[in-house]
Amino acid sequence: MRIDGKQIAQEILDELKERVVRLKKKGIISHLHIITLTTDAASNAYVSQKKLKGGEIGAKITVENLSPNTKTDELLSKIERLNNDKNVHGIVIQRPLPSQIEEKKVAEAINPKKDVDGFHPQSKFSPPIAQAVLKILEKIYTSTPGVDAQKPLGFSSWLKSKKIAVIGRGVTAGGPIIKTLKRQAKTRSDLVTNLVTITSKTENKIEILKNSDIIICAVGKANIIKKSDIERGAILIGVGMYKGEDGKFHSDYEEDDIRDTASSYTPTPGGVGPVNVAELLSNLLKASENQL
Fold first, then answer.
1. Domain hosting residue 30, numbered range
2. Is the same domain home to 105 and 187?
3. Claim to verify: residue 204 and residue 245 sit in the same structural domain
4. Burial 34-62 (b: 16+ CB within 10 A, else e)
5. Is residue 123 situated within a structural domain?
């Protein structure tokens, strides 16, 4: 089954539109301020979608493009100004960041109440990318023939029964996904227990993949997964993406290669990306409502 991330995202966005209207009646215009310092094609594509979809729900999206040569102290000054601006409800420092930027300092400088990306240690929000993956998995669960979607704890029990592999542990995708799954496993023992992380140093990668029911790939390089690496019926969630020589964005696996082997998979584009953007905007609305 090819997962339609655009449809899932639209369901979220339709609900957010109603909340934006209610906030406007109270004199509040949800405002997300995004700062970019990167020329990364995939990252810039996400920023464009954030601005587009934010506008569609009626939120204000400001994109501030800084030089890749910007110093950490300069960026921290920008963040402090935004922290103190009562008309800004969410702050995003778009990753990846240039090598001279001290990423930990930047993450910790953002007011946790405005950290809609969820990078601050005390952030009030779950990372949108992790929420997007869970939302897609829940969609797969509810689409399974014979499943009672209204059954209490049905999704979490289903997820607990699955062996999950996450490929990549980068700061923008794999890391937040792993952290979120592990945190929920600690607070909700019924959710996730069979979780394995695969990195470039993992020696038994193929063995792990062959034994995994759900594979979440967050690398952003070609052919990280091939159909020969997985068992028939596996679920593939493609988080990482890269721009190919054809000028198009591709996932860590090729759809034509895996479509007849995977039971469900996300395409690129149109898979995880739209849901990620919608979940970010959902966090923005929560931040705006929390400031009432």
1. 5-118
2. no
3. yes
4. bbbbbebebbeebbebbbebbeebbbbbe
5. no
| Number of domains into which the chain is organized | 2
Q: How do residues 131-141 score in pLDDT, each as one tens digit? A: 999 999 999 99
**Is this structure's pTM higher than 0.85?**
yes
Which amino acid does the sequence have at 182?
A: K
- Residue 42 confidence class, pLDDT cut points 50, 70, 90: confident
Residues 135 and 57 in one domain: no
**Residue 240 is part of a domain; what is its CATH number?**
3.40.50.720
Buried b / exposed e along 93-112 (16+ C-beta atoms within 10 A)? bbbbbbeebebeebbbbbbe
- 90 or 247, which is more confident: 90
Residue 187 has what pLDDT? Answer: 52
Residue with tokens 């860590």: 252
Pairing relationship of beta strands 90-93 and 241-243 according to DSSP bridges: unpaired
- pLDDT digit string, tens, across residues 109-132: 999 999 999 999 999 899 999 999
Burial class (CB in 10 A: 0-12, 13-18, 19+), 155: buried
Are 91 and 137 in a shared domain?
A: no
Residue 279 in any domain: the answer is no
pLDDT for res 30: 97
Q: In what order do the strands lie in the sheet with 31-36?
A: 60-65, 31-36, 90-93
> Both 190 and 212 in a single domain?
yes
19: tokens are 């909340």
